[in-house]
Design goal:
Blueprint: H1 12-16, E1 45-47, E2 60-66, E3 72-74, E4 77-79, E5 82-87, E6 93-97, E7 101-105, E8 112-117, E9 128-133, E10 139-143, E11 148-152, E12 158-161, E13 182-187, E14 193-198, E15 209-217, E16 223-232, E17 238-244, E18 250-258, E19 262-271, E20 294-300, E21 323-332, E22 335-342, E23 354-359
Antiparallel strand pairs: 1-2, 2-23, 3-4, 5-6, 6-7, 7-8, 9-10, 10-11, 11-12, 13-14, 14-15, 15-16, 17-18, 18-19, 19-20, 21-22, 22-23
Length: 363
């Protein structure tokens, strides 16, 4: 998501509170008004000294974080603005930035190995947000501009473009708000279904309900529109990312920002398997008979140990920044390995930070 500014009035009581209410998804990437509180520790990776120090919640722990790529460049391209992550077929980490570049990062060191420029059909830049590495190695990438989902070759050539329901297009073509559309993209188990998450509600729907759109793979290898589901968001938050778990459930990030206080980032486990297909429902207002996606809080990232992290602007936990990308990179001892990344917006008062989590999805 591109840098956006939202002015928020924050009372002294709120600034001192241990529980923070976020101002809203459109405020997730603000310019900070304050000078950095401390150095960013760029280039270092930090870990806790004991297992107890790792816990964020009973379901989530954090192994370490890394600021190694903060404010760096690679082959003349700024490394940052990251909005999505995926594991590539060679084991490297594909890191998508929202200004039309796709990086390949070494999975162990995070150092860039390659960068591929992206563009739309007219050569214009994308507001690139969601990423899936398909089973044949092609890249499925969302852009918030229209919104759109395009398939790219490994070298950045456009191969296909998926259909999008008219209601999800940005107004006046549709009912979506600019910069509040397809932020997340994931492929469900089996590989035949894609799911994109809208960041915020469309006009006519309740403010706390966002739509998740799916596509089904055809025999010819293209995708047709599939079911649509309704996901309930916390007040003032939006959905920057979604990732499918091996059993067909979803890890969902919810995020917001309050000026002078900082970011709110929560990780949920969501189950769309019994939710109502809402593709034929014009307005979602909480009406009876519509089963929303069920969600369970796994962790509020503010509750993670800071592990010595510092922040360049006020945060409820100095570990926090504008977390926007997520990938499941493996599993270990019954827990998923999950990698998060923050979008620094190429802003001196924000940080490109990677977070290494272990997540239990046991119900």
């Amino acid at each position: 998501m591109r840098l956006r500014t939202v002015l928020a009035t924050v009372t002294a009581a709120l600034a001192a509170a241990t529980t923070v209410t976020a101002a809203g998804p459109a405020a997730a990437n603000p310019p900070a008004a304050n000078s950095p509180a401390a150095n960013s520790h760029a280039g270092n990776s930090h870990a806790a000294n004991s297992s107890a120090a790792h816990a964020c919640s009973p379901s989530v722990s954090i192994d370490r974080f890394s600021d190694a790529l903060d404010k760096t460049t690679y082959q003349g391209t700024f490394v940052g603005n990251f909005s999505a992550l995926a594991v590539d077929r060679d084991g490297s980490i594909a890191a998508l930035e929202d200004r039309s570049s796709l990086f390949g990062l070494d999975a162990k060191t995070l150092q860039p190995k390659r960068v591929v420029p992206l563009a739309d059909e007219n050569g214009a830049a994308l507001d690139s947000e969601g990423l899936v590495i398909d089973r044949d190695g092609t890249r499925l990438i969302t852009s918030e501009t229209e919104p759109s989902v395009r398939r790219y070759s490994r070298d950045g050539r456009i191969l296909d473009r998926l259909p999008v329901p008219s209601s999800l297009l940005v107004a006046p073509a549709g009912r979506a708000t600019s910069n509040q559309t397809f932020e997340g993209l994931t492929r469900l188990p089996g590989g035949h279904t894609l799911l994109a998450s809208m960041e915020d509600a469309i006009s006519g729907d309740s403010a706390n309900i966002v739509r998740f759109q799916t596509w089904e793979r055809t025999k010819g290898g293209h995708f047709r529109l599939g079911a649509q589901y309704a996901y309930p968001i916390d007040s003032g938050l939006g959905v920057p990312e979604v990732q499918a778990t091996p059993d067909g459930r979803l890890l969902v990030l919810e995020r917001g920002f309050t000026s002078g206080v900082g970011n709110t980032v929560r990780l949920y486990l969501a189950d769309p398997r019994r939710a109502t297909d809402t593709s034929g429902i014009e307005n979602l207002t909480g009406q009876a008979g519509v089963r929303l996606i069920k969600k369970t809080l796994l962790a509020d990232i503010a509750d993670c140990p800071s592990l010595g992290a510092t922040a360049k602007q006020p945060q409820p936990n100095p570990l926090l920044d504008n977390i926007e990308g997520m990938a499941i990179t493996g599993h270990d001892k019954g827990r998923l390995k999950v990698l998060l990344v923050s979008d620094d917006n190429q802003n001196a008062t924000q940080i490109t930070r990677f977070y290494y989590l272990r997540v239990s999805t046991a119900s």
